[in-house]
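Changelog-linked ticket: adenosine-5'-triphosphate example.
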Amino acid sequence: MSAMIELGSISKTYKLYSKPLDRLKEALSLSKKKYHHDFNALNNISLSVMKGEALGILGKNGSGKSTLLKLITGVLSPSSGSLKVNGKISAILELGAGFNPEYTGRENIYLNGLMMGYSREQINERMSAIIDFADIGDFIEQPVKVYSSGMFARLAFAVSINVDPDILIVDEALAVGDIRFQTKCIDKMKELKAKGTTILFVSHATEQVKRFCNRAVWLKDGQLVADGEASEVVDLYEDYMKYDTFLKDEGLSSPIAEAPEVGFEIPENCDLLASVQNVTLNKGNFKTFDALEVDVVYDIYEEKIDDFLIGVAIYTPDREYIFGPNTYLEKVQVPRQRGRHVVKYIIPKLYLLGGTYCIDVGAFNNEGLVCLNYKQEAARFTVTNNYFSEGLVYMEHRWEVQR
Ligand SMILES: Nc1ncnc2c1ncn2[C@@H]1O[C@H](COP(=O)(O)OP(=O)(O)OP(=O)(O)O)[C@@H](O)[C@H]1O
């Protein structure tokens, strides 16, 4: 398969001046005195995008998304690194960029078409399709400076997707259109994708990225921190945005606790009767329906604790309680005499959907009425999936068409 876009260790440094005058002073300085400081908007990005891929680009404001797209389209040049683009790019970057405000919509279609390398005849062939798609009525004969942002988006989109690009770049352009127009654009983008057009898609609407893209990258402070299947990267990104937890791949993993010490000791001056020593998961990142195993290591300091029980609870990081059985309710006998013990809690099929989750572990007696020791967020794990459902948990279900 051929790479349409190849970026090799690309960096982009902007010069920041604290006052506009500093730029002039620097230009005129005979001693080459610096009046700026460097700001790395992109740092060492390597990325290959293949033909037919629909790549979502995620990242919060200022993370470098637009800078990356401007480098790819050639609006900016990189400070270092190599960049190769194979094919004709059509980009909707900033609304109105590439439009002359004094020209009418129709004249701007010519302008854009010529910039893309089409002849007047070729543009004429496409003109009615573009005007139909934009659907802005008589405004097509008005100078675009009188357009609303929605009209701009319609025209920009109509031009970009009707010129048979090899690479289509869409930067947040859908956000300004109404739902009907967005649907029309997505349909057209799907059509292009099916034809093998490579698509780069920036949207803060992560669901759109999940549904439309087959791959996504996440930019954070100018660095590429995740690259993979779109819905997995979206899950990670959303979790980060919600909870500021960034867990990396295999060990997207939560801090898997240290292996338990073999030695059992009763701490000095200890007024605890028992304590949860250690909580270990079989891994940090799961797929829905994987098996989750939690090893709980606990110590009992009394000779024996009657009605001793262990509870394991799953929470979301914002403390939504999902599930919490305990050994008393389920009539499981766990060791309750002095010493160190290990109990394994197994969920053979995890029904949780994508997200980050926390595990609390508690030791109790008296049917759970007295808490002997409680470890909140003793472990964390993530669930990431290919996109197959939405929500928190998966429930067995079926669909029946009634009519
Ligand atoms: N011409 C410039 N001169 C100096 N700094 C710039 C320039 N353009 C962008 N930056 C800075 O580079 C960083 C990345 O900006 P960029 O516009 O690429 O981010 P973004 O991810 O597209 O953000 P948004 O989602 O808000 O559009 C930001 O901190 C921005 O302030």
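Closing comment: Example verified and attached. The chain has eight helices and 17 strands. Residues 14, 16, 39, 41, 59, 61-67 surround adenosine-5'-triphosphate (CB under 6 Å).
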